[in-house]
UniProtKB/TrEMBL annotation:
PROSITE patterns, sorted: GNAT (PS51186)
Name assigned to this protein: GNAT superfamily N-acetyltransferase
Domain named N-acetyltransferase: residues: 32-181
Biased composition (Low complexity): 8-21
Keywords: Acyltransferase, Transferase
UniProt cross-references to PANTHER family, sorted A to Z: AMINOALKYLPHOSPHONATE N-ACETYLTRANSFERASE-RELATED (PTHR43877:SF2), AMINOALKYLPHOSPHONATE N-ACETYLTRANSFERASE-RELATED-RELATED (PTHR43877)
Region listing for Disordered, in residue ranges: 1-21
InterPro entries: Acyl_CoA_acyltransferase, Bact_Acetyltransf, GNAT_dom
Source organism of the structure: Streptomyces avidinii
Cytoplasm in keyword set: no
Pfam families xrefs: Acetyltransf_1
Length: 181
């Protein structure tokens, strides 16, 4: 991991089952309002809402969802938003925010379907956990839904353990926590 502007950056080599050269992930802090970050947040919402409702969502529903669940807490000094790029293409994002001085929460963790299985989720988690430590957190938590099986598997693979509910989120069905060394 390297440091850029006091924020961690991760470049992780990945391979795809093709003869093409290996691409690498770069994950860096970015304002959630940039063009790339906004497109990724919209894609995230479209996928999680579509899976929940079991149908494709409309642009108006995405707009409303982003208004109902704003990302304004994902800015320093209480949070951070990151964008992951594979071979320079923005294909992943995530956020971290403080719940209290020692506890951070992951949110909006998303890897585009075209890039799943290439190490993007692991790259996001590594940088988000480093951002949480930089915010002063000693543990990180998150909530997710039962139908987001890929996300639950990712968290379990990276040391997150299921815990009792720490919030009463409308869409929360599983809660995870990981101590930060």
């Amino acid at each position: 991991m390297t440091t850029h502007s006091e924020h961690p950056t991760l470049t992780a080599p990945t391979t795809k089952p093709t003869a093409a050269p290996a691409l690498s992930w770069t994950v860096t802090p970015e304002a959630f309002t940039t063009r790339d970050a906004t497109a990724l947040r919209r894609a995230y919402y479209a996928e999680v809402a579509g899976r929940y409702w079991k149908r494709q969502v409309t642009e108006a529903e995405i707009d409303q969802g982003l208004l109902d669940f704003p990302d304004d807490g994902l800015v320093p000094p209480t949070g951070q938003f990151v964008v992951g790029r594979l071979g320079g293409e923005p294909l992943a994002c995530g956020g971290v925010r403080l719940l209290d001085p020692g506890t951070a929460e992951l949110t909006r963790v998303y890897v585009d379907r075209r890039a799943r299985g290439t190490g993007g989720g692991a790259a996001l988690l590594e940088v988000l956990e480093a951002e949480a430590r930089a915010l002063g957190a000693v543990r990180v938590r998150l909530d997710t839904r039962s139908d987001l099986v890929e996300a639950r598997a990712l968290y379990a693979r990276h040391g997150y353990a299921e815990i009792p509910a720490y919030n009463d989120g409308q869409y929360a069905q599983h809660w995870f926590e990981k101590p930060l060394p």
